[in-house]
Amino acid sequence: MSEPIRVLLADDEHLIRGALAALLGLEEDLLVVAEAASGPEALSMALAHRPDLVILDFQMPGMDGIAVAERLCAELPSCLTMILTGHGRPGHLKRALAAGVRGFAPKTMSARELAGVIRLLHSGKRYIASDLAAEAISIGESPLSPRERDVLELAADGSSIADIATRARLSQGTVRNYLSSAVTKLGADNRHAAARLAREYGWI
User: Fold this and answer.
1) What residues contact residue 32 under an 8 Å CB cut-off, 6+ apart?
2) What pLDDT digit, counting tens, does each position of 133-168 carry?
3) N or C: fewer beta carbons within 10 Å in the chain?
């Protein structure tokens, strides 16, 4: 029998992570070698255990799953990564692919389906959930420039122009220009609506 596929699980929800580890452990060709509860811990554990595949929750404390995948792609290129998410946004998918992620799937998939995806990725293929791929294609690329995206993200929590200017180290007039441009590009009524829309699409 060939060596099992060595897997690291990273999810800050302990119950979900533990249940997934137990279910994957029932598969004879899979071996969960480590678990992590945060982004930095996932990166550290991956470098220590050198698994074949790291399964990353999208949202984790300290560093999100895509940021971890990007670091692993650079520091441990032999390790494959996939994202499991309860927030499958088109912008997140595109960012994940740019970071070198090989698989992108919703948390609603069963453990048996996930085991099949792990084997698929280990064989050299990619996996992207069909509904996420279709939505990403239909929505298209973000129209926002990097600076517009950064400023709009700062506006998402309801911060004032003055607060945004301070945090972004820009003048208030420049912040207003970036926000006005973002609102126009997204066809929103105001900066708060623009931020909600951009977040819904995963662009911020």
Assistant:
1) 7, 8, 9, 21, 24, 25
2) 666 666 667 788 989 989 998 998 888 999 999 999
3) N
